[in-house]
Design goal:
By secondary structure, the chain is α/β, with parallel strands linked by helices. The chain contains eleven helices and eleven strands. A hairpin with a 3-residue loop joins strand 10 and strand 11.
């Protein structure tokens, strides 16, 4: 979808300071040596819930930073879209409403979406459609990949998961990035890949055993080949990106930076680089190998990092990519305007007075 006057007016991101290191995880038996060779992962960001780093609380921190960065009054937010993958605090509860309360947004529509790791781009399109040329919205994304529900080093293959949150304010009053287009593609024939043969009677909340996505993929392969998945993924992501580029009036060669999910080396090449016809040097892949895959927050964190790095020139165009189980692919083309952030303050920890990474 082409957007004529939609802007990212401000950002917020939260990455925990603590890291677990892949080499240490291999040495202690938590991380498979072959997986380490496939991913090239260096470390992963690790949240500590006892320190107030639950997924909802990280989203609040990122949301507050985004509102401050945009200079936006919370009362001006009309819709809030919160994207998650895993358990996000409590069942029988809307985390979006919690964010609304904590951020001081008096009246808005709080929506929690589960398009998994495509959630940030899907959220951008939802806000754009909702606002229809006026008003403002927020997109937040957060996940904490914690035991006993999920083992960041062993529940999946080809990537390692990191904890974190991102947020952005969207509106029509200008900002550091103009949103030129968004595109979303889905393929429900691949839904079973992350369901497998598992029961849908919420078994993991009582078993004490981490989710095993590898077993689910193996069950999927009993009825559909993994080669079919790769073929469908390549076709869908290619179509999604081509649609976004066409709607933005942008050629492939005009993209200065490609923001892709924080996957491991082999998975990233097969699932993203081949369909998009790019290489690691055009992305923030090396940064992803230090943080881990945060879920839907990946493209927000990457975009915020690039803006703060000083690597962008006004007029640079970037393509954001999200890939969610189910399967859903989302792409957005944005243009850096060079507009200054409303605030450049960083969050500092009370204990050490050191700047907390990625929080604005």
């Amino acid at each position: 979808m082409k957007w004529d006057s939609l802007y990212i007016e401000g950002f917020g991101s939260y990455l925990p300071e603590e890291r677990e290191f892949a080499a240490e995880m291999v040495a202690t038996g938590r991380y498979d040596q072959v997986e380490h060779q496939k991913t090239g992962q260096v470390s992963a960001a690790v949240a500590r819930p006892e320190r107030g780093e639950t997924a909802p609380e990280m989203a609040v921190a990122a949301g507050r930073a985004a509102l401050a960065d945009a200079g936006t009054d919370p009362a001006d937010i009309d819709v809030l879209v919160h994207a998650v993958v895993l358990h996000n605090g409590l069942e029988g509860w809307n985390c979006g409403a919690y964010l609304q309360s904590e951020l001081g947004v008096e009246e808005c529509v709080p929506i929690e979406i589960r398009t998994a790791c495509a959630g940030a781009v899907v959220g951008m399109e939802l806000v754009g459609r909702w606002s229809a040329g006026s008003g403002k919205g927020m997109v937040t994304a957060s996940d904490a990949w914690q035991l006993p529900l999920f083992d960041r080093w062993a529940s999946d293959s080809g990537l390692v998961y990191g904890d974190g949150a991102g947020a952005l304010v969207l509106g029509h009053d200008g900002g550091p990035f103009r949103v030129l287009s968004t595109s979303v593609v889905s393929d429900p024939l691949l839904e079973r890949m992350h369901r497998g043969n598992d029961s849908m009677a919420m078994p993991y909340y009582g078993s004490g055993t981490p989710i095993d996505l590898r077993r689910r993929v193996a069950a999927f392969a009993e009825t559909r080949s993994t080669e079919e998945f790769w073929t469908r993924n390549t076709a869908a992501l290619s179509r999604c990106a081509e649609t976004a580029l066409a709607d933005a009036g942008t050629a492939h060669c005009d993209i200065a930076h490609w923001l892709v999910p924080n996957f491991g080396r082999v998975l990233l090449r097969k699932q993203c680089f081949v369909p998009l016809k790019i290489d690691a040097g055009q992305t923030l892949a090396e940064r992803g190998w230090e943080i881990g895959h945060t879920g839907a927050a990946d493209p927000i964190l990457g975009l915020d990092l690039l803006r703060r790095s000083g690597a962008l020139t006004p007029g640079d165009r970037l393509l954001l990519t999200g890939i969610g189980v189910g399967f859903t692919w989302g792409c957005a083309v944005v243009e850096y305007t060079g507009a200054h952030a409303h605030t450049t303050e960083t969050y500092e920890t009370d204990e050490t007075n050191e700047t907390k990474e990625g929080v604005r």
